[in-house]
Amino acid sequence: xxxxxxxxxxxxxxxxxxxxxxxxxxxxxxxxxxxxxxxxxxxxxxxxxxxxxxxxxxxxxxxxxxxxxxxxxxxxxxxxxxxxxxxxxxxxxxxxxxxxxxxxxxxxxxxxxxxxxxxxxxxxxxxxxxxxxxxxxxxxxx
Length: 142
Fold this sequence. Notes:
It is a single chain. With 142 residues, this protein is α+β, with helices and mostly antiparallel strands. The protein contains 4 helices and 7 strands, in the order E-H-E-H-E-E-E-E-E-H-H. Strand 3 and strand 4 form a beta hairpin.
């Protein structure tokens, strides 16, 4: 049996979970196909990612949501270089807030290190201001 692994990625330029969702929806409409986050590196642990893995998004220094990874598509840029298109499920799943320092690119994230999903009853709650979410995460309040 193949194990499962996740990815974690900074959502540069996003101020909220809603802004990530809106941006991805705009891209889907503009392109007329699934949204893909295109990256230079092809994950070596592809089978583990496609075995139920998600991409966890860091927004304003905090992990706040995730999307299940549906597939990886090959994209060839105008420069002829092969790139990886990470195709996430359009459903955005809110997670408990977890502080995360900046990093480049994407990283693997073990399931046991990933923030838990918010209960369905809490998923539709208004987001707390980023400073308050960060303060609560720092002291371990979930």
